[in-house]
């Protein structure tokens, strides 16, 4: 530093790589602030200057040029927001007027280094000088290149105590407050959004809760991974259940970044400064106001050139009772406007309180007139839907979900039935009325009249409404489903979902495991059994108690015959 003759100096670690035009941007803040002591850019490893995770060492997952191009687009604010208590020496520009005013580093106290620039910056602050972030510059720092980790840790701990003793208010109050407030979060969030601007897909979905376990959630994760594997970058646009609270997250760049929106309509700004290539409406169920979302998307579709896709996970577009259950809690396939208009006001299965089916379908009709593709997961869903929305003809695809269960977890072994004919029957999934819990309870009582040694079990989430003799085995987990069914000697499963299932991972997994099971004739499970000619299953003739009982008794007889002759145990996949 004693050799410097210019107005400014730059400290640059040997373990850094700089982008083009880095020096111009690094020195630019000094032109507007005469009392500016230092300027420091963003980096992947630079404590408070770290991106994407604040205060951490981050591995750089994208090229330096790509990350820096995103930061280049951020406009410097020229206000106190960018000020800080200290620069950081990996890449720090220094005003030589300040250097001469403050003096050199305290070599005697800090020795080989680490913390010596913080000490100098805090001395400068005491003399009225300022320190600033350069928010439109990113420098790659191969952290750990200056010191070995053990040496770094020892120097850090030792020299931190020196800083605390000299500047207790700064170190014990201002620094913790800075970390708590994280004032530069908006810059990092904006950079993450800008960095997502490459084959960008907006993925509209229900936000997941901490303990959520569902096939729909697993599908979302896999679909996003598939998009990323194909080179696309994804920004999720998610809503909280039964609300209009929205967040966006550029998860392909920074999974920890989440930006709250005042309303869904604010996503229009993404289309104005990003090149959105595709919008996927994955889920609108449990949303407080889906009509406003559809209106916004349709308006943007008219203004901008992007591909629009819709995923048919439920029947919300057909009816606010999105499982297509009537007010009598029965599966509905009428799709008749007059019938629907009389059913809706008294239908307690609605996930959203709407009563005008004509207006409801008018909103969705506009969406489907603009959509580029509607993806169904079963032919059953398609056949019902196309009656109401013929405009999707030529714009749909039917793609079954790939299995989520791993090959190594296909471990089920059909147990033998002993002479006392003790038979164990299971229920898997959510034990609730829409999934057939009432039918299971009633049929379990009647089956005991035919097979007194019959036992009943639940493997899933229960609402506590099971009969007292039914044993609860814990939550449904596909990774150990086969093993649990084997361990508890489950001979067959009753899967009495009365929903018009658009797909069923549970049915798919039972078939892959080779488990005998019974279903109602509505929805994708019955379609799947017939499509793959799965002979270890029975489809009830109708959605009622007696039909389910007959189908179960028929399957029990089949299982008894198979169990008596193990070689006859076959799997039809």
Mind describing the biggest β-sheet? 8 strands, mixed
> CATH topology of the largest domain, anyone?
Rossmann fold
Q: Identify the CATH class of the largest domain.
A: Alpha Beta
* Largest sheet, spatial ordering of strands: 10-9-8-7-11-12-13-14
What does this structure look like?
This protein has 573 residues and is of the alpha/beta class. It is 36% helix and 17% strand. The chain contains 19 helices and 20 strands. The strands form three sheets. It has an eight-stranded mixed β-sheet with strand order 10-9-8-7-11-12-13-14. The radius of gyration is 32 Å and the shape is elongated.
Tag the structure with descriptive keywords:
eight-stranded mixed beta sheet, Rossmann fold, disordered C terminus, six-stranded mixed beta sheet, single chain, 19 helices, alpha/beta, 573 residues, 20 strands, 17% strand
What is this entry, summarized?
This protein is of the alpha/beta class and 573 residues long. The chain contains 19 helices and 20 strands.
């Amino acid at each position: 530093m004693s050799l410097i003759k210019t107005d400014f100096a730059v400290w640059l670690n040997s373990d850094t790589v700089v982008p083009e035009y880095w020096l111009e941007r690094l020195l630019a803040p000094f032109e507007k602030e005469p009392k500016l002591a230092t300027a420091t850019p963003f980096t992947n490893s630079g404590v408070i200057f770290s991106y994407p995770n604040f205060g951490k060492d981050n591995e750089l997952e994208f090229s330096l040029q790509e990350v820096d191009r995103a930061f280049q687009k951020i406009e410097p604010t020229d206000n106190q927001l960018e000020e800080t208590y200290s620069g950081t020496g990996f890449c720090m520009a220094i005003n030589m007027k300040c250097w001469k005013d403050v003096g050199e580093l305290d070599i005697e106290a800090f020795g080989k280094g680490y913390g010596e620039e913080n000490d100098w910056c805090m001395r400068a602050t005491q003399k009225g000088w300022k320190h600033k972030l350069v928010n439109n510059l990113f420098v790659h720092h191969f952290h750990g290149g200056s010191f070995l980790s053990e040496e770094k840790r020892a120097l850090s701990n030792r020299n931190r105590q020196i800083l605390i003793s000299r500047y207790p208010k700064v170190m014990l109050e201002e620094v913790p407050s800075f970390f708590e407030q994280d004032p530069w979060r908006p810059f990092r969030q904006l950079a993450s959004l800008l960095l997502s601007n490459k084959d960008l897909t907006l993925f509209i979905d229900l936000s997941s809760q901490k303990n959520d376990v569902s096939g729909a959630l697993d599908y979302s994760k896999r679909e996003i991974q598939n998009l990323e594997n194909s080179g696309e970058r994804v920004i999720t646009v998610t809503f909280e259940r039964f609300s209009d609270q929205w967040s966006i997250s550029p998860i392909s760049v920074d999974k920890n970044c989440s930006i709250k929106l005042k309303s869904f309509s604010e996503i229009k700004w993404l289309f104005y400064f990003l090149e959105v290539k595709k919008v996927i409406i994955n889920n609108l169920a449990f949303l407080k106001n889906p009509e406003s979302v559809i209106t916004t998307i349709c308006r943007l579709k008219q203004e901008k050139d992007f591909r629009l896709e819709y995923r048919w996970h439920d029947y919300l577009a057909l009816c606010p009772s999105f499982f297509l259950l009537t007010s009598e809690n029965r599966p509905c396939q009428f799709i008749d406007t007059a019938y629907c208009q009389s059913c809706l006001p008294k239908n307690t299965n609605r996930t959203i309180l709407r009563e005008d089916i004509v207006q409801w379908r008018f909103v969705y009709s506009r969406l489907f007139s603009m959509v580029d593709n509607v993806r169904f997961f079963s032919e059953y869903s398609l056949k019902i839907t196309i009656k109401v929305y013929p405009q999707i003809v030529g714009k749909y695809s039917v793609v079954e979900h790939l299995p989520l269960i791993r090959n190594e977890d296909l471990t089920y072994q059909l147990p033998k039935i002993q002479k006392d004919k003790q038979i164990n029957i299971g229920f898997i999934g959510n034990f609730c009325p829409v999934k057939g819990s009432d039918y299971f309870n009633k049929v379990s009582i009647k089956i005991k009249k035919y097979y007194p040694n019959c036992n009943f079990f639940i493997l899933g989430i229960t609402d506590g409404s099971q009969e007292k003799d039914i044993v609860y085995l814990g939550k449904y987990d596909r990774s150990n489903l086969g093993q649990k069914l084997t361990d508890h000697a489950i001979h067959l499963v009753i899967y009495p979902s009365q929903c018009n299932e658009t797909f069923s991972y549970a049915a798919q997994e039972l078939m892959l495991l080779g488990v005998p099971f019974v279903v109602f004739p509505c929805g994708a499970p019955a379609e799947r059994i017939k499509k793959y000619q799965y002979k270890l299953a029975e489809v009830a003739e109708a959605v009622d108690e007696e039909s389910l009982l007959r189908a179960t008794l028929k399957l029990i007889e089949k299982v008894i015959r198979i169990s008596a002759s193990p070689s006859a145990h076959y799997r039809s996949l």
